[in-house]
Write a sequence for this structure.
C-alpha cells in the first residue's frame, strides 16, 4: 500500500464537473493498493498518516499532526501509484490491485483511518474519473509505502 500525502490549504474533488468532496486545511492522501496488501498494511499506514507530524507548531516547526490541528482528511484511490516504468514508455500497472479486492481494501482503509482520526473522512469515488483542485501548503509532500516500514 502506497500513499502520497500532501499538506493542503484546501482540496476540492470533482466528478463530471460537480464537487464530490472537499476539505480545508489538512491532508489530501492519494492511496495506491496492491494485490499483496493486508489488514496489517491498512492499520499501519492509516495510523502513520493520522499521527504524521507535518504541521507547524507555534514556533514554526513541523511538530503537529493533522489530528492535533483539527484538520481535515481526504483519501483518494489512485492505482497509478504502483506504475512500473523501467521498460519502455508505457507504464505497467500489474502490481496495482484490481476490482473488488482493491475497492474493498480502499473502503477498509477509509473506515480504519476514520476510526483513528475520529472524524469523517472525505473521499473520492472508487474507479471514477476525478479532477482535483488543491493548494499544497509548504509545499509538503510525503510518500509512504507500507512495504518499507524499516
Amino acid at each position: 500500500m502506497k500513499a502520497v500525502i500532501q499538506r493542503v490549504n484546501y482540496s476540492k474533488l470533482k466528478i463530471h464537473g460537480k464537487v464530490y468532496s472537499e476539505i480545508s486545511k489538512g491532508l489530501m492522501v492519494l492511496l495506491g493498493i496492491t494485490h499483496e496488501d493486508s489488514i496489517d498494511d491498512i492499520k499501519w499506514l492509516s495510523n502513520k498518516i493520522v499521527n504524521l507530524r507535518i504541521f507547524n507548531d507555534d514556533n514554526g516547526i513541523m511538530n503537529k499532526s493533522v489530528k492535533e490541528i483539527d484538520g481535515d482528511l481526504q483519501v483518494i484511490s489512485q492505482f497509478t501509484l504502483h506504475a512500473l516504468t523501467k521498460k519502455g514508455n508505457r507504464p505497467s500497472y500489474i502490481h496495482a490491485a484490481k476490482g473488488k479486492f482493491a475497492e474493498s481494501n480502499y473502503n477498509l482503509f477509509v473506515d480504519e483511518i476514520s476510526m483513528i482520526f475520529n472524524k469523517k473522512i472525505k473521499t473520492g469515488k472508487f474507479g471514477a474519473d476525478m479532477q482535483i483542485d488543491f493548494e499544497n501548503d509548504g509545499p509538503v509532500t510525503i510518500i509512504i509505502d507500507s512495504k518499507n516500514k524499516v
Notes: Residues 99-117 form the longest helix (19 residues). The chain is about 20% helix and 35% strand. Residues 2-145 form a domain with the D-tyrosyl-trna(Tyr) Deacylase; Chain: A; fold (CATH 3.50.80.10).
